[in-house]
Design goal:
The chain has about 110 residues and is an alpha+beta fold. It is built from four helices and four strands, in the order H-H-H-E-E-H-E-E. The chain has a domain of about 80 residues.
């Protein structure tokens, strides 16, 4: 992981903890609503109350911060896991360098440059 990417991810995590950024519960592309409280309860039941298992599993269900440009550290787009994976399938893993302007359509099948 590049230093710029690591710094950008760290800044976002810190901004969330300090209340500067707020993680939404809705994907900005497809509109999927994530009820993290309900998911946490289901995972606790699935893993018999094992908090370590729940903590490591819950991140996959949360709305994720995606950087189009790591140099703009707090400029993120909030995506569900499916939309985030779709972006990287279409653009590759390391295309977050600001050279690409794009938006995913709700069906996640097309990208406009």
């Amino acid at each position: 992981m590049s230093t710029l990417k690591r710094n950008a991810l760290s800044k976002v995590k810190s901004a969330i903890k300090r209340g500067i950024l707020q993680r939404p519960n809705v994907c900005s592309v497809c509109g999927k609503v994530v009820d993290i409280v309900k998911i946490r309860e289901e995972l606790l039941e699935k893993y018999d109350g094992d908090l370590a298992h729940v903590s490591s599993s819950i991140n996959a269900f949360m709305i994720q911060a995606h950087h189009d440009d790591y140099s703009k550290m707090l400029d993120v787009r909030w995506l569900c896991l499916a939309c985030h994976l779709a972006w990287h399938v279409l653009h590759g893993t390391y295309k977050n360098n600001g050279k690409f302007k794009h938006t995913l359509r709700a069906d996640r099948s097309k990208v406009r440059d």
